[in-house]
Amino acid sequence: MASTARPAGRPRSEEVRDRVIGAAEKLLDESGYLGVTMDEIAVRAKVSKKTLYRWWPHKVAVIADVMVARADVRTVPDLGDTRAELLVVCDYIDDFSRAQDVFSTLCLTEAATEETTVLRSFLDVVLHRRDQARAAVQRGIARGDLPADVDADALLDLWNGFFVYRRSFRPAPVREDTVHQLVDMALAGQVPRLPGQRTDGTTG
Questions:
Q1: Of 92, 89, 33, nearest to 60 (Cα)?
Q2: Would the pTM count as exceeding 0.85?
Q3: Cβ of 108: how many Cβ atoms within 10 Å?
Q4: Which has the closest alpha carbon to 96: 159, 152, 139?
Q5: Are 20 and 52 in contact (CB under 8 A)?
Q6: Which of 76, 102, 195, 200, CA to CA, is 20 to 30 A from 125?
């Protein structure tokens, strides 16, 4: 199994990195994940294959860096309105889900042979995005708009699953009125609950 650790020695040139990531991103948009090759990345980036392989041991490592570069960790603003903030969360999930076709293909084609550390930096981005969404849910709890025992992670997983399934597997349009209904259901208390004593006095 190939190691993904950075080689010792001279630091990687940021100018070379930018050229490689830019070339890989254009190839990805033009040909899809399966159409990207290390040879073509080297040609377009105007770097030697030796240089390319010195810093990226395989294609999945390059594409993982592309996905990190594309990721946009945006703050969910405190609008003083839980419904508005949750709709912003859904907008961000929708934007993120548009990249999942590539990421899913990457995972499916490489999972059996590549180290999970290849994707660590991308998964760090995912966690930062989750922190922003969870903060909006917690503000909703503090305002009394959401149940105190809402399972925020389960709720966000459900919403992410809806968008990813619609974008990647079905596929089907994501209608604005459906998104509004999902948020309104949460505000009506139709959310996953944490185990233990519920706010309505029942146990779960």
A1: 33
A2: no
A3: 10
A4: 159
A5: yes
A6: 195
